[in-house]
Amino acid sequence: MTRDVAAADRPLQRPAPWGPAALLLILAGLAAVIVWQTWAGLDHIDRMMGERSRTLYRMVATEVRNVARYGAARLERLDEVLGEIAAGGDVEGVSLTRVAGGVALARGVFPDPLPDLEVDGRTHVLDGEALLLAGPTTIVTQGCGGCATCGAGGADVAGEPHCPAAASTMLDGDYVVLLAIDARPYLALRRGVWLQALAAVVLLLGLAGGLLAYRAQLRRAARMGEALAVAGERARALERLGRVAAGLAHEIKNPVGSLRGFAQLLAERAGAGSQEAEYARLMVAELDGITRRIDRLRDYARPAPPRFAPARPNDRIRRIAALLEPDLAARRLRLALDLPPDPGPEANLDEERFRDLVVNLLINAIEASPEGGTVTVRLTALDGDRLALEVEDQGPGIPPEERERVLRPFHSTKPGGMGLGLAVAQQAVEDHGGRLELGAAPGGGARVRAEWPRRGAGGE
What we know:
5-stranded mixed sheet; 49% helix; 3 domains; Heat Shock Protein 90; 5-stranded antiparallel sheet; 12 strands
């Protein structure tokens, strides 16, 4: 469809807010910082647990070796020492088990069942609220300590055991020390790290929401600025138009009307089928076009508010289609009316403005359609007590980048066009509280859709 396009078009300037890529980069960077801080905190706590468990293991292993090496009643003393260890500090349980069997001492509390542990004195395992670590130790006794004649292992100088106590406290051998350490302080620290991470995530989400809201606000501000610029341009155009509309209507339309009357008289006096009659008919058609353009100019500049009255859009559309039959016949076009069953929906309409809407949409479609084509007019009753009028042609269509500019007044791609057709139609539907949308027809060409409430602007 040939459309009214800006003759002196200046693109509206929009602010250039940061795009989605920059937003994602910011959020990804903040998320990476949160992940790194959380990992670093948990790793630090894990290293603290490991270092603490290894330190306690070394202390307990040293204490066990020292107690078992010297003094009488070593086994009983060793059991007491294990109880002292389990009763104080961070240790909840301690056990000493001889690898070869025979000695197994345990004090305190252990998880049940025990998990598999590496007996290396380095690898700790967190089981519930207990931190477990197992490691090896070796006990070498240095005599029973009961008499001056006892040698190593509680034997006399001849090598024969003579001390019953020494025989009962033979503790030499390899052992496994198992520690159960209270892990609650470390678990509290871990929970603190996770809570900090959660708080950071909440803040990050809040920041993301704020950035998205700010970006949306920038876009709304850009659209509002664009709308204000378009409205200002339209207001300036209307101001210019108002100054010349009255003069043009008076100075041009009256002489044009007289010329049209003379042309009709010449056509009647000329012989049927003669060249003079054809010329006269062409003059009438051109003068009608001039009159139509003057009417568009006058109607677009009129300041009167709309006056709504109940009407049937079906009837009005059929009357206007009948008036435009000569234009359709001149281009050998077919008009397809797709209207609701009669009498059709009722709506509050401003008679003149609704006529402006239908006439201008049909004229644009007729001028855009190739000879022998079809112009389709479709009226639909929508949910929500609204009506939609669609006019489709089979012309070249409107490029998407042009659909905003073609609605501006005084912009035209047609030679000699005034650039008011679609601008008048848009003003008419806006006066009814609706909007005008431009798109593509299914079979090519353009589709212009007007949608407005049945009860008129403001729900009257």
